[in-house]
Amino acid sequence: MNWNDWIPLLVVITSLLPGLIIFTLAEDNVRARVMLNLFGAFAKLALVGLMLWGVYFGYHYETRLPLLPNSDLVLRAGPLALLFVTLSTILWLVTTVYAIGYLEDSPHRSRFFGFFSLCVTATVGVALAGNLITFLLFYELLTLATYPLIVHRGTEEARQAGKTYLRYTISGGALMLIGTVWLYSLTGTLEFTPKGFLSNIGEQHYPALIGIFALLITGLGVKAALVPLHGWLPLAMIAPAPVSALLHAVAVVKAGAFGIVRVVYDVFGVEFAAGLGVLKPLAWLAAFTIIYGSIRALFQDDLKRRLAYSTISQVSYIALGVAIAGPIATIGGVVHLVHQGLMKITLFFCAGNLAETLGIHKVSEMNGVGRRMPWTMAAFTIGAFGMIGAPPVAGFISKWYLGLGALNNDQSWVIFVLAGSSLLNAAYFLPILHRAWFMPSPKSWPHEHNFGNKETAWALLLPPLITAAMALAAGLLVTMPFSPLEWAKLISVREFYQP
Amino acid sequence: MSSSMYIEFISVTLLIAVIWPLLLSIPPLHRRLPWPRHLAIIPAAVLAVIPIDVSFNIPWLLYGTGFAIDGNIRWILGAFVVIWFVAATISLPTKEKSSPDYATTLFLLTFTGSLGVLLTADLVGFFSFSTLMGYGFYGLLIQDGNKALLKIGRHYLYVLIVADIALFEALLLVAFTTENFQYEMVRQTMSEISSSPIYLYMVLIGFVLKAAIWPFYFWLTAAFNSGSRSIALLLIAGPITMSLLGLLRWMPARDDIYILGFVMQFIGAAAILHSVLKILTSGMFKQGTRRFNTAWLVITFTGLFSLALGAALQDQNLWQQFSYLIYPAISIFSLLVSLLILSSFKTHNETVLIDNTPVLIKNIFHRLKEWLCSTQQLASAIKLTSLTLWIKLGSFIMKQYQHVSSDHKIRAFVPDWKINITLFLILVLAITWLAV
């Protein structure tokens, strides 16, 4: 093994090791905890930057360690894996800064940051997994690492949400495990391969493959919050804002959506899956989830709950892009993995700022908040317009490619789904913006904290401004090299639709 | 200066003209400068007076969006600069430095959007800037908290959303055909492909809504009745003029679309007839009816525009002979209407005629919706199952929203979404009909 072969493992270790050390730190050892967190985040960022550069120019990074007989633990940095790893790494750094500000003076911070780092470790592992068994391993670690974050507040409501989360995700994990074992018994391999590894299998096994596909997608659909497997997500918004940001934009739902991409493209192969007839039901399910999530979001007065239903809707764009099949829709789905992350994390950061600074938790409490917290609401506005799909924010690019991909694949009905979704997104985001910017402010806010003449603490304000700027840049500078769209095109050419 | 230096100077000015007002819209920046609204207009004014044509592309937005200026655009730009300058002067912000001046932010965002629409060289840029213009103008319309304007703002917002969805669909159809989004290329390409009628109808729906062309003028008359002089001026220099320009630029160059040509001519004729009747019956020269009549004059002009475009869609020769007149006509029209606005909006106490059009339009939509719901058989006959689903979904949303929301303001806001959803349904109906 040469130096390059160790880099994927190092990327995992850069958050695992700080996380394990943070568990042992005393509660008041703030400086060491902050240093460890930031050191880990920056080290990971540097390594990921190195791999991005290398992969772009054709280098190969793969760590292979013995795990089970005939099945290694494989960490491989291909273009698709790096897209997700880069997203996780950048947003982890930003979320760490935010969490430091958000949890200042609150109890159990060592426990929180320890699990926070483990959660990112698991996400990066999911992204880099080179076979289904490695994927499953990190996928389950993610479940276990996020549970303590969801119940962090320790309230009865948080515990109930945690229980529901465990019930859903462990059941999903069990289904995945069954599907994985069944697949292994049929094929003898679980290695992710461009265009899949099932095309040579005999026709007599097709019913079994359909069953395996159903098991895997159901297992992944729990974390990706596909309806009717979404029940845990709106409840989990009880967690602190940095955790919600992590769940909705970086880790859990993204791991599910990413897994769907992996199963369709690198296990079954998109053409083989289409031949089996399993992609159409997936497309319908994703389309239904998009509309259902948006309709449910309309009725929520709780801001984080509204955002949670919005996530259910938006993450299904990724599944829809994959299920439409074809290079253009795939670009739309894959790039939305990044775009949704940037926009949704902005919205959750802003929701956290409103809660932490003014005690605002409900949409109906947001009248005139734009005048009190203009920068926070400016970031929120960019995120919301992105979700609607207004140019030049990143969401426009995703919808563009999904729509175009649908037209190219003779699936015009998807256009109506996208249009309906945009309309519904506007219906639940624009009233928020209207209230915040154009309604008169109340005489007092629910629980206002004093930050002097500042809008809020810098550690809380900077992260949403950075992510909002990134969401804007991802749409505005879309033709630049290394933009998410250009990288998604690279994925499409190199991994999914190579000649 | 040599000619190449002139071209470079104009190119840089062109870019600055769009970026400068966008930068100035950031409150901490414009608060520190005197007369920021006027300062923002200066580069555009420079462009309007230097008669050099330039165009260039920059690597941003989808496919890389360019800017261009030529003699035709300069006609509109000249009027545009004058009107925005006057609007900036008559709507100066308060001198209070303590509170943030969001009116200036919104003014500058709308200005950037409108200017971008005017100067951009392709459809993606046009769409992006027109979205900025639309939402900026919405903010400008409702920012002073006037209840009547809030209601108009909501109607405008619904129109904007549906129009943007229609234009987005049109853009996708273009992207399906070509990767070159420059106006001339799109006009040529879309005139040669079979899906161009759908594209045409999408464009028509989008811009008829945005330009308040008859019969979707209800928000325009209401805005003229309730808004200030500056709002009326910006409405002319922004959404109306730019949407007419959009119709010109997005329409494909083909002359075999008789039905659409006929539809546009019918719309134009109906608009003119309706406007003339309205103006005559309101008492043409009476004090207190000037705002009302100015609004109807705008509708008359958009009707004329529609009539001319309809004729051009039926006969391209006609278009080639007279198209050079369109830009000066739009320019002169916007200046004349601005003069009328300045003279007719002098007093705040003038009597405002109540126009019941919004109610009528709502009733028409409501009836249409009821009719569509009740004709299940017809729907299935023409394969409109999906439409019925949408209708039920719309009703479901209304019901749920009214039940669940405890906040009466949300509740008051929601029933108006009926218009929005109904417009969307009409869009779906149109596409389904075309597809069938």
Give a short overview.
The complex is a heterodimer of chains A (499) and B (436). With 499 residues, chain A is mainly α. Chain A has a domain at 337-499.
Q: How would the blueprint of this fold be written?
A:
The complex is a heterodimer of chains A (499) and B (436).
Chain A lengths: L2 H22 L5 H27 L5 E7 L2 E6 L2 H24 L6 H20 L3 H19 L5 H32 L18 H18 L8 H5 L4 H10 L1 H17 L1 H7 L2 H20 L4 H22 L2 H32 L10 H4 L1 H15 L5 H15 L4 H26 L19 H19 L7 H13 L3
Antiparallel strand pairs in A: 1-2
Chain B lengths: L2 H22 L2 H4 L5 H14 L4 E5 L6 E5 L1 H20 L11 H18 L3 H20 L4 H31 L5 H8 L5 H15 L7 H9 L2 H22 L7 H25 L7 H25 L1 H7 L3 H19 L12 H18 L1 H6 L3 H20 L3 H6 L3 H19 L1
Antiparallel strand pairs in B: 1-2
Overall description:
The complex is a heterodimer of chains A (499) and B (436). Helices cover 74% and strands 3% of the residues of chain A. Chain A has 499 residues and is mainly alpha-helical. Chain A has a domain of 163 residues. In chain A, α12 runs parallel beside α18, α14 packs antiparallel against α19 and α17 packs parallel to α19. About 10% of the residues of chain B have low confidence. Chain B is globular, with a radius of gyration of 22 Å. With 436 residues, chain B is an all-alpha fold. A two-stranded antiparallel ribbon of chain B has the order 1-2. Chains A and B meet through α12, α17 and α18 of A and α6, α7, α18, α19 and α20 of B.
